[in-house]
Write a structure and sequence with these properties.
7-stranded mixed beta sheet, 13 helices
């Protein structure tokens, strides 16, 4: 049996009949950029998240980059984050000229809130929690810490659309939350895409200008900006997929429960999350000894898996060249990186395939 990690072709067939007329409307209008379909998507996403503003952008990385830029960070400023994310999280910090300070993660793979305060110095200006796998970090405690020390909070929510912490959604109590609409996300474009969410009108307005060369209006730039507009065809596709998002997340949560029940009493560590977390299961990440051997065994059985991510950012050449003498206390992240494995979990995974995955894992375990 062949079990795909994700099936983008099947996703297209799900929406094809609904999407083609909407794509035709965009193409027929000639408004390939800045069509009203983009602003209406922003309105819908803001309503979903319970925030005043959403600004759509070309990628989740651009969301992080511009989110950090409008926080006015300087070269001496420090941003606290985690080392076990995709490199884009730290790349954005470095691109705006700030410095990265790593805090270790907990057993749930999210930032260990109890260790943040010790990492705060006079140079700290922001905290960037990364909501990995579809789990949201403890936003309430992070916000409390930020208020005590006068810090900004910018959330890397690339993997967490549809997730929340005790009813608090990304963007509601932070300064900015940054999302990705990459093809592998729960809400995904047919290419790159992203957006920021914020209740700060001034920040949203500035990011809206920055995404188009800093222009307040055509040929009038208030500052040097970027080209980071979400194109109209992607917005039309995302409108259709947004209609299905709750169903997609429900299916993922259903499959995750089956995984949990089957693997709980084995030597495989199932995903952990706090009871306050509504997990949208962008990823289903287990921990297992001899991970590479397990992954090879599954691959030989026709089961696709991934590792998110096989190298900590702190071990990337880009980081080591910038911080050659860094001494890090990230023991949990270092231990987890050799054990984590992402299993197939998506809306087109049927129960026969799921049983097959579980069976092969059980044989190995």
């Amino acid at each position: 049996m062949r079990v795909k990690y994700v099936d983008l072709a099947a996703q297209w067939l799900d929406i094809k009949d609904r999407a083609l007329p909407e794509i035709d409307k965009v193409l027929s209008s000639g408004m390939y950029l800045e069509h009203e379909v983009v602003s209406s998507l922003e309105t819908r996403l803001a309503a979903l998240l319970g925030v005043r503003n959403v600004v759509c952008l070309n990628s989740g990385t651009d969301a992080l980059l511009m989110g950090l830029k409008v926080l006015e960070l300087k070269s001496s400023d420090e941003v606290i984050t985690v080392p076990n994310s995709f490199i884009a999280s730290v790349a954005a910090i470095e691109h705006v000229g700030a410095k990265t300070v790593f805090v270790d993660v907990g057993e749930d793979h999210l930032i260990d809130v109890s260790k943040i305060e010790k990492a705060i110095t006079s140079k700290t200006k922001a905290i960037m929690p990364v909501h990995l796998e579809g789990k949201v970090a403890n936003l309430v405690k992070i916000r409390e810490l930020a208020k005590v020390y006068g810090l900004k909070v910018i959330e890397d929510s690339a993997q967490a659309l549809g997730s929340h912490f005790g009813g608090t959604w990304p963007g509601q109590i932070s300064d900015i939350a940054c999302f990705s609409l990459h093809p592998l996300k729960n809400l995904n474009a047919a290419g790159d895409g992203g957006f920021i969410a914020t209740n700060d009108d001034d920040l949203a307005n500035r990011i809206s200008r920055l995404r188009s060369h800093g222009q307040a209006q055509r040929n009038h730039s208030l500052e040097f900006g970027f080209v980071s507009r979400l194109d109209s065809i992607q917005a039309a596709i995302l409108h259709i997929k947004l209609d299905d998002l709750s169903k997609v997340i429900s299916k993922r949560r259903y499959l995750a429960k089956i995984y949990d029940d089957a693997l709980r009493n084995t030597n495989i560590k199932i995903p952990l999350s706090r009871p306050e977390v509504f997990h949208s299961y962008h990823l289903y990440v287990i921990e297992v000894k001899n991970r590479d051997t397990v992954q090879q065994y599954l691959d030989e059985s026709g089961i696709e898996t991934k590792v998110h991510y096989p190298t900590l950012i702190s071990d990337q050449d880009a980081f080591r060249m910038r911080y050659p003498k860094s001494q890090l206390k990230i023991t949990n992240a270092e231990a987890q990186v050799s054990r984590i494995l992402s299993l197939p979990i998506h809306q087109h995974l049927d129960l026969e395939q799921l049983d097959y995955v579980i069976g092969r894992l059980g044989e190995f375990a």
